[in-house]
C-alpha cells in the first residue's frame, strides 16, 4: 500500500498550479486506509487537497465491538481519533453530518456540529464510506432515545447504550433481555451481554434470550458452526427461540409481538436485525443510483455506477455484478476493498491532473470464503472456513491478535510486538513472519484445530496456512471433520 502513489508522484509534481480535491465522505474502515497511505511530501500535497468529512470524531473498529461490550477491551483500544489521524497524515478533517450528496454536480452538503448553517463542498474525487444502520423491525414503533431498545448501530455508542439500559433494569424483580436477530452480530452480542452481566451486573436477576426468524442460529453459516454456537448458548443458559419473526413491540406490556401472533416477554430488547442504508443515501436530495434496498450501486472498480470520479465502499455499496445479493455486509470486505480503492483513487488523481493520462482501474472480487471468527464471551471463540468449524481459547487469541494488528496499523499499541516485523512499515499487519509452510498429516492437523483449551494460536494458524496451500491436505481434513460431526 505504501508504494502505490510512487509511480505517479513525478507527474503530479510537474503540473503547474492545478489542484485536485479528494473528499472522503465518512471515516469507515476503507477510507481510513486512504488517509494512511496517501503521500505526505510537500510537493504532492501541494497539488492535491485531501479532506475527510465524518459525523463522528472517533471511528470504531467493528470487529472489536462485541468483545468491547463483553469487557475484553477498553474503549480506547478499539477506536481511532479521526481528527488527529487526519492531521498527522496531512488531511483536513471536518466533523459534520452529511445532508446531501449530488453526484451530478460533484457536491456534498453538510452541517458542522458547532453550528446549524449548511455548507457545500465540491469534490474532484469522492469516496463514500458511510456504513449502514440497523433495520427497525417494528411496524408501529419509531425507536426513541429513552426506550429500552438497543440497536447494534451506530457501533460508537453500543457499549454505552447497553450499559445504560442494563443499569436501568429493576433490581427487585426478574428482567428478560432479548436479542432479536441470530446472525453473526446477534450471536456475538448475546454472548457479550452474558459476559457483561456476569462480570459487571451480578446483582441483576435476568434471563437472556436470542430469537431467530430461521430454524437455527447463524442460518447462513455451515451446520458445524450452528451446532457449536447452539451448544455454547445452552451451556451458558441462554434461551434460543427459532422460527419466530418479531414484527412489533408493546413497551407498556414489556412484550415483543411475532408474526404468528405469539409474544415474547422483553424488558430490554437488543436489535441485530440486519443493515439498511443511511438516511442521507436514500434521501430525495441525492442523485446516487440505488439498488432495491437503498444501497449505492457500484461497478467492480468500486466506482459508483455512472460516475467515474465517485466511489462507494463498505456496507453502503451494492455490486451490480451480483445484483446486490453479494457480498454480505461484513467488515472483512471493507478492509479488503482498501487497496483497490487506493489504487483507483491514484489513477483518478493522475487523470484529473493530466487530462492526457488514461487511467487503469483495478477491480475488486469479493472472496466467497474467509476465516470467520466469532466470540463466545468466555475466553473462547468459534472459527470457520471451508465448511468446517472449530472453537477454543486459541481461536479467541487468534482473533484478538488479528484485530489488534489491524489497529496497530493505525498507530495503536500491540500486545505482541515481538511477533510483528519491526523494520518494514508495509508488513505491520503481517500475522507471522514468512516461513516455509509446515507440513502436517490430516490427523495431526485435525488434532491441532480441536485443541479447545490451548491458547497457542500460532500452530493452528500454521495448519490453516498448510490447508490453504495444500488442496489434498485440506480435502482430507475437511472429510475428517465432517465424519466427526455426522
Secondary-structure blueprint:
Layout: H1 6-14, E1 20-25, H2 29-37, H3 42-47, E2 48-54, E3 58-60, H4 65-70, E4 79-81, H5 82-88, E5 92-102, E6 107-112, E7 118-122, E8 125-128, E9 133-134, E10 149-151, H6 158-168, E11 175-180, H7 184-200, E12 206-211, H8 223-235, E13 239-241, E14 246-250, E15 255-258, E16 263-265, E17 268-271, E18 275-276, H9 279-282, E19 296-298, E20 310-312, E21 317-319, H10 331-353, E22 372-375, E23 381-385, E24 388-392, H11 393-409, H12 442-449, H13 458-469, H14 471-484
Parallel strand pairs: 1-2, 1-8, 2-5, 8-20, 10-17, 11-12, 11-17, 12-13, 19-21
Antiparallel strand pairs: 3-4, 5-6, 6-7, 9-18, 14-15, 15-16, 22-23, 23-24
Helix pairs in contact: 2-10, 12-14, 13-14
The major pleated sheet works out as:
7 strands, mixed
Number of strands: 24
**Basic shape:** globular
**Average pLDDT figure:** 90
Helical content, roughly? Answer: 25-40%
**Cα-to-Cα separation, first versus last residue:** 44 Å
Report the sheet-strand fraction: 15-25%
> Radius of gyration over alpha carbons?
24 Å
Short description:
It is built from 14 helices and 24 strands. It has 486 residues and is an alpha/beta fold. The chain has a 7-stranded mixed beta sheet. Strands 10-17-11-12-13 form a 5-stranded parallel beta sheet. A 3-stranded antiparallel beta sheet has the order 14-15-16, with no helix packed on it.
Amino acid at each position: 500500500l505504501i508504494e502505490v502513489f510512487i509511480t505517479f508522484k513525478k507527474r503530479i509534481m510537474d503540473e503547474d498550479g492545478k489542484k485536485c480535491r479528494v473528499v472522503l465522505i465518512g471515516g469507515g474502515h476503507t477510507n481510513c486506509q486512504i488517509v494512511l497511505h496517501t503521500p505526505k511530501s510537500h510537493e504532492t500535497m501541494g497539488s492535491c487537497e485531501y479532506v475527510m468529512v465524518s459525523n463522528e470524531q472517533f471511528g470504531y473498529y467493528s470487529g472489536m465491538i462485541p468483545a468491547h461490550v463483553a469487557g475484553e477491551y477498553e474503549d480506547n483500544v478499539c477506536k481511532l481519533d479521526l481528527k488527529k489521524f487526519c492531521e498527522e497524515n496531512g488531511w483536513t478533517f471536518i466533523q459534520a453530518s452529511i445532508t446531501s450528496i449530488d453526484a451530478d454536480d460533484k457536491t456534498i452538503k453538510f452541517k458542522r456540529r458547532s453550528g446549524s448553517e449548511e455548507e457545500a463542498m465540491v469534490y474532484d474525487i469522492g469516496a463514500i464510506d458511510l456504513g449502514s444502520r440497523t433495520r427497525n423491525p417494528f411496524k408501529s414503533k419509531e425507536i426513541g432515545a429513552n426506550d429500552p431498545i438497543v440497536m447494534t448501530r451506530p457501533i460508537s455508542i453500543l457499549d454505552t447504550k447497553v450499559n445504560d439500559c442494563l443499569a436501568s433494569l429493576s433490581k427487585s424483580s426478574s428482567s428478560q433481555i432479548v436479542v432479536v436477530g441470530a446472525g453473526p452480530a446477534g450471536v456475538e452480542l448475546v454472548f457479550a451481554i452474558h459476559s457483561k452481566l456476569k462480570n459487571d451486573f451480578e446483582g441483576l436477576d435476568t434471563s437472556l434470550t436470542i430469537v431467530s426468524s430461521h430454524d437455527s442460529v447463524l442460518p447462513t453459516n455451515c451446520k458445524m458452526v450452528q451446532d457449536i454456537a447452539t451448544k455454547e448458548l445452552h451451556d451458558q443458559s441462554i434461551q434460543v427461540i427459532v422460527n419466530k419473526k418479531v414484527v412489533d413491540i408493546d413497551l407498556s406490556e414489556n412484550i415483543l409481538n411475532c408474526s404468528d401472533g405469539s409474544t415474547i416477554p422483553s424488558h430490554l430488547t437488543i436489535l441485530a436485525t440486519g443493515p439498511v442504508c443511511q438516511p442521507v443515501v436514500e434521501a430525495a436530495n441525492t442523485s446516487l443510483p440505488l439498488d432495491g434496498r437503498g444501497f449505492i450501486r457500484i461497478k467492480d472498480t468500486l466506482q459508483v455506477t455512472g460516475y467515474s470520479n465517485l466511489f462507494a465502499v463498505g456496507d453502503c455499496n451494492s455490486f451490480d455484478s451480483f445484483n446486490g445479493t453479494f457480498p454480505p455486509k461484513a467488515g472483512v470486505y471493507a478492509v479488503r476493498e482498501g487497496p483497490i480503492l487506493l489504487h483507483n483513487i491514484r489513477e483518478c488523481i493522475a487523470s484529473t491532473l493530466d487530462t492526457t493520462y488514461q487511467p487503469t482501474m483495478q477491480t475488486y472480487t469479493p472472496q466467497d470464503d474467509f476465516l470467520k471468527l466469532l466470540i463466545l464471551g468466555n475466553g473462547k471463540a468459534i472459527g470457520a472456513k471451508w465448511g468446517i468449524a472449530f472453537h477454543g481459547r486459541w481461536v479467541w487469541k487468534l482473533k484478538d491478535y488479528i484485530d489488534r494488528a489491524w489497529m496497530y496499523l493505525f498507530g495503536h499499541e500491540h500486545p505482541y510486538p515481538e511477533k510483528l516485523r519491526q523494520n518494514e512499515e508495509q508488513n505491520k499487519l503481517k500475522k507471522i513472519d514468512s516461513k516455509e509452510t509446515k507440513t502436517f498429516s490430516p490427523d495431526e492437523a485435525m488434532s491441532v484445530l480441536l485443541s479447545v483449551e490451548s491458547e497457542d494460536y500460532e500452530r493452528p494458524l500454521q495448519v490453516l496456512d498448510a490447508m490453504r496451500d495444500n488442496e489434498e491436505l485440506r480435502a482430507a481434513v475437511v472429510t475428517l471433520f465432517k465424519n466427526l460431526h455426522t
